[in-house]
């Protein structure tokens, strides 16, 4: 595992420069570590802001665009942005209809985004918060509010973005985000760690023939570590855990996100998807518009996360609504 | 490096099953290892067929769709499909206006596709061939016809597909493909190997602190192997080699494809793109619609390929034309 980079200290800033240079139609960097839509906030539309540590592309920046997000504050790799950067992102997203903060449940991000919200309140910009807490491996159902946010975020971005694009008010956009966040359950497994540039060493160690089920996207400990199992057995365990946790059953409709953490190739995601589809078909559950690819990564970590999004007619409509960004295709 | 798979012998077939199941709107598998557009050939349109070994997603299958390809024959990992599979793909692509075979310059693929063309000739289906030979590291300019085809293929797919969508005839579609193939130059470097499932071991060995410039996508030997250099130095060497080989200079317009071979994360592609943009700007060369991502991979290999596509008004128009597939966005 080797990094293509210059000085580790410049990793994030050079990455953001390149990202904005490659996608000028979508976003710009009006201030350091603050990414906003090209052309600025949309008057009269609820703004949607996200943010968190770097190292998870396309999360966060890649989902800024019409029908999706308006701005993001970006921290160092796996580290929270500052509350000032978050407040700035909120100002850039503000079109006069309020701002939703939509992000993952990590301590530093929550503290800083809450402070940013207080700052904006003094500037008479109304804002709300919806936290993603979809990683079922990170806490039991009885403590679901402690769960970390992972790839389910992508579904929530899409649904909230669509509701805002339809000119829902702040309460309506917040409700769509919360409903979608509540509809998502995720679990992942890791095969190899990644390297945080400024640390220069792997985030964890794991045997050459081992996997860890339930590991978090920053290397947080999982549920079990054992020999690498066949893809079908892994897929079965993941989907069964999500079905049990969510209560989704026969006759329901779901979307799935089969997501590589980075190094695991598309070929293997499709092998996993094949089994998931067969298993859900056996259970009488329909898959609608699955996503298979790299939507929320940990740089070069090998592993896969699976997100189940329980659909109702509203969420299904919002996920299918038009949008335009480099990393979600409708 | 660990694979998420079941039996190695089932890797390709399970992958193709999952791929078609995930994207039913775009393609189906009418015969084993033959992927064709959902809904069949388009009457009156020139069909475009590609093919080659598995292990390079989204190449080949991922580029089937309106404005792009019509069918593909898929071999084992890094191995040619059979001439029968290629002939079948051509029949599925045939809308009565002839078929273009558009693929990379590898011995097995050329032999089998030529045989497939002869088979189709006996069935009164006209066909032509355009080979991609864009990898400048694989042979000197004096032997350019010996060069291997790599990610430049994606530009040729797009241009030929657009010309066919405009209802160009077989000669016109072939000319557009040839012109775009001729306009492309690529070079890559590798940091780590990948594992071919049925071999079960890495395709090559390389030191923990080493890179190999010019290595082929199947691990073919490159130009030099040395300590891993900073991203900017690598970017400079790659673009300078491509500029020299192509003769592209001040005042010209190019597109770039900065492509991860698999494990190298998007973050690092953007760091490379940042430098390329700055260097081309200094030389007075404009970059139009760059592509940054995973367009032609070698499963979990770490490394990057760079493709330079020299534009004229025709190629620029064809690359910008509408299309619809899971892996190219216009």
From TrEMBL, chains A, B:
The UniProt keywords, alphabetically, are: Kinase, Transferase
What GO molecular function annotations does the UniProt record carry, in alphabetical order?
A: kinase activity
InterPro entries in the record:
DhaK_dom, Dihydroxyacetone_Kinase
Supply the SUPFAM superfamilies for this chain: DAK1/DegV-like
Q: Taking every annotated instance into account, which residue ranges of this chain make up the domain DhaK?
A: 7-328
Gene3D superfamilies linked to this entry: Dihydroxyacetone kinase, domain 1, Dihydroxyacetone kinase, domain 2
Protein's UniProt name: Dihydroxyacetone kinase subunit DhaK
């Amino acid at each position: 595992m080797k990094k293509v980079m210059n000085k580790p200290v410049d990793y994030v800033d050079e990455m953001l420069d390149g990202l904005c240079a490659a996608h000028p139609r979508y976003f710009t960097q009006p201030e350091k570590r603050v990414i906003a839509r090209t052309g600025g906030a949309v008057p009269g539309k609820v703004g949607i802001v996200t943010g968190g540590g770097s190292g998870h592309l396309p999360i966060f920046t890649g989902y800024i665009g019409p029908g999706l997000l308006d701005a993001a504050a970006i921290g160092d790799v796996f580290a929270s942005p500052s509350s000032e950067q978050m407040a700035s992102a909120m100002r850039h997203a503000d079109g006069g209809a309020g701002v939703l903060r939509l992000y993952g449940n990590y301590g530093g991000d929550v503290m800083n985004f809450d402070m940013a919200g207080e700052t904006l309140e003094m500037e008479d910009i109304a804002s709300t918060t919806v936290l993603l807490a979809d990683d079922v491996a990170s806490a039991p159902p009885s403590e679901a509010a402690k769960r970390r946010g992972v790839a389910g975020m992508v579904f929530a971005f899409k649904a909230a973005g669509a509701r805002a694009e339809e000119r829902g008010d702040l309460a309506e956009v917040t409700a769509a985000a919360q409903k979608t966040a509540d509809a998502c359950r995720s679990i992942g497994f890791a095969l190899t760690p990644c390297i945080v540039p400024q640390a220069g060493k792997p985030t964890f160690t794991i045997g050459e023939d081992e996997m860890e089920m339930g590991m978090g996207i920053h290397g947080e400990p999982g549920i079990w570590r054992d020999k690498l199992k066949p893809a079908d057995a892994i897929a079965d365990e993941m989907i069964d855990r999500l079905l049990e946790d969510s209560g989704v059953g026969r006759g329901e409709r779901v979307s799935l996100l089969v997501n590589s953490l980075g190094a695991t190739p598309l070929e293997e995601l499709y092998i996993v998807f094949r089994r998931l589809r067969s298993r859900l078909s056996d259970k009488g559950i329909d898959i609608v518009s699955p996503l298979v690819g790299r939507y929320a990564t940990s740089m070069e970590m090998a592993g896969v996360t699976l997100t189940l999004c329980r659909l109702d007619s509203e969420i299904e409509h919002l996920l299918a609504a038009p949008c335009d960004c480099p990393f979600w295709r409708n």
